[in-house]
Amino acid sequence: MTDSPLARLVDRVEPRLPELVDRVFATILEQITLYRGAETVPADELRRSVEHNLRYMISAMRDPLAPRDFSAPEETGRRRAQQGAPLPEVLRAFRIGFTSMWDLLAEQARADAEPDTIDTLLAAAARTWQLTDEYAEALTEAYRTSTAELLVAQQQRRSALAEALFTGEQRPDAGPWEVSQLLGLPADGDFVVIVAETSTTAEAGLAGIERGLADRGIASAWRLAPGRQMGVVSLRPGQSGPALEVTTARATTRTGISPVYRSLYETPRAVHLASVALGGLPAGRAEVAVFTGNPLAGLLARQRDESDRLVREVLGPVLELPVDDRTTLIDTLQAWFDHAGSAERAAEAMFCHSNTVRYRLRRIHELSGRSPAEPWAVADLAAALQALRLRREG
Hints:
Number of domains: 3
Number of strands: 6
Helix content: 55-70%
CATH topology of the largest domain: Globin-like
CATH architecture of the largest domain: Orthogonal Bundle
Distance between the termini: 79 Å
Strand content: 5-15%
Largest sheet: 6 strands, mixed
Order of helices and strands: HHHHHHHHEHEEHEEHEHHHHHH
Radius of gyration: 36 Å
Shape: rod-shaped
């Protein structure tokens, strides 16, 4: 403790602390809208914080040589960071506290009218502004440290929820609303999943993709893992084209995009379809492919074992032929389907005679036991052909 004129002035002011707390509390509410609403910082908590900090300020004013105790501003900084209060507004409230203390000290010194009043006020002013800087620095450091910790925790939480979203894992601590809110996505709407290859060091195949999409007004959530970078993208009307442009511009590895789907619950299925689209690209190529299959293709892509069984049962004998023969027959069947069952149009596309197409279709009939003239047989052939294409892409 010291017995300086400033210390004696502080001693005379200390009994007026309740008055000072009321003054600072009222001024903060009057001047700072953030605190006036009490949604961010409850009024009773603000009042306790004001009193807590003013007590520490008075103690520091009394004895300049005492060890600094910054627990009060540090606690305030941490708490306001947790509440999401903007740092400039928090510092502004602190400055109101110091200004109000200086006003009270000056008021008391004038009332005392002692011979050394001027010197005492000069000492009080110097001490006030020194403490203002020190307390503001302590508060700011605590605020930023807490903000960084919160960001890390939020990112970890976000990553865990994204993982649950992509895998379909049910989390007891996070319902659909919380998942969509934390990830910044609507619960329903138009979505696509984008899957890109990564290097062995988990380097993003779509570097800066989230920011690139956000710059175009497109919300997304991403997860980076060894071998894959996955993102779910929320699309408003007219955003499909820009999303594809951004993805294509940033792709440095093979990248697949799922069909559009309507609910986040369908995300695991979309991940699989995007992976199928990726698998259809040549290895080592920085290209983007969109899964454009019909609903049947989506079903077959999800049921891989059944899809393989379908191929074996329907097209097995065809696939056992020598490479050139089986390729010719499969390509012909695909052309026939692509041209609405017209042998003439399929022949034009394949630069051959329509009778050649009919002959090859008869061979497929003989080998598979399924005639292109019978509806149920056509359904089997179409499904098997689709499954074969997906197997090659996957």
